[in-house]
Amino acid sequence: MKITRAESFILHVPITPPITDAINAASHWGLAGVRIFTDEGIVGCGYTGTCAEGDDLITRTIDRYYAPLLIGKDPFLVKELWDEMRYGKMHWIGRAGVTHMALAAVDIALWDIMAKAAGKPLWQYLGGHKSKRIKAYNTNGGWLNWSKDRLLKDVADIVEQGFTGVKMKVGKPDSREDYERVKAVRQTIGDEIILMIDVNQQWNINTAMTWAKKMEEFDLYWLEEPLNPDDILGHKKLAEELNIPIALGEHVYTKYAFRDYIHQGAVEYVQADVTRVGGITEWLQVAGLAAAYDLPICPHVGDMGQIHQHLVASTPGALMLEYIPWIRHIFAEPATVKDGYYILPQRPGASTDILPEYFEAYRVKS
Ligand SMILES: [Mg+2]
């Protein structure tokens, strides 16, 4: 099989109503991606996710630097192609961020092609581990811009729908407000539901130590991204001092950075995001690393679940997957959650094929 062409795309899918966490505000979810065409008629689709800013830098990297390397090559040589892209012309100016997100989009499209050629959903092509369903936890009721009333109504609805895990955002200017919101959510959902809080990097070490310590009484399942994602030492200190496990990984871009976090005991739930860490090729290596330390993996759902459901279903140490249903309607086989569990996809590929009508409706010129 040979690659004949690669075409980048940007889609902006509306988020209604717009949401915020401690550092991001989003009215649209951006997909910066690529479709890779082959001489056997199989087309692979891969993408990364953004808050609808900077997408053009990602697709420019794909068009100018990665796509030309692919033409005429066999997609089954995905690891060789990954090395050529990663250590090619862009290595000088980027080993994370834009370049790794572009690399992720291309890598995912290549794995999509391979799984389609094999006639298997990606989770089976990778070697299945969970054959029926995977546990979901819901983040979509816990946004920071939600009023307390709306927050409590939404988390109650989520539990009513059958979810057994809920995540909420914290990081308000006054941490006492965070404390009161977490307390109210715990009272609303009861003791049986697991509850995670996500700081989105907003705290410093002192705020984290003081307020996470106070919140231990709410039996939190994890504390997510309390500090700047480059601060391994700070997270290590929190992991040692707090009785809430530390979760992070959505802003960690390489297996080397994960190695340092993991080896130093600074992360306790590994949230590697396939759309940030350079694609499936690198994600699998991070998963192997976590497995050697017996650490659970719960991916950040930057792709809104389409690709990560395959990775969780094929990875022994992967416990559950976040659920945020903003963009699922645009896909030919949407990620589907029923009674709090993802139902595993059955079509060949990575579940990344986008319906033509939405591809046109949400397309943005780069
Ligand atoms: Mg997060």
Major sheet: order of its strands? 5-6-7-8-9
CATH superfamily of the largest domain: Enolase-like C-terminal domain
CATH domain topology of the largest domain: TIM Barrel
Look at the structure and give the CATH class of the largest domain. Answer: Alpha Beta
From the N-terminal CA to the C-terminal CA, the straight-line distance is: 30 Å
Determine the fraction of residues in helical runs and give it as a percent range: 25-40%
Strand content: 15-25%
Label the CATH architecture of the largest domain. Alpha-Beta Barrel
Number of strands: 12
Q: How would you sum up the global shape?
A: globular
What does this structure look like?
- With 366 residues, this protein is an alpha/beta fold.
- The protein folds into two domains: 3-120 and 356-361, Enolase-like, N-terminal domain (Enolase-like, domain 1, 2-Layer Sandwich); 123-343, Alpha-Beta Barrel (TIM Barrel), CATH 3.20.20.
- It is built from twelve helices and twelve strands.
- It has helices at residues 55-70, 78-86, 98-118, 122-125, 148-160, 175-189, 205-215, 232-241, 255-263, 280-292, 308-314, 356-361, and strands spanning 3-20, 25-38, 43-50, 133-138, 165-169, 194-198, 222-224, 246-248, 269-270, 320-323, 336-338, 341-343.
- The strands form three sheets. The protein has a five-stranded parallel sheet. Strands 10-4-12-11 form a four-stranded mixed sheet, covered by helices on one side.
- Strand 7, helix 8 and strand 8 form a beta-alpha-beta unit.
- The two termini are 30 Å apart.
- The mean pLDDT is 97.
- The protein binds magnesium ion (MG).
- Magnesium ion binds next to loops.
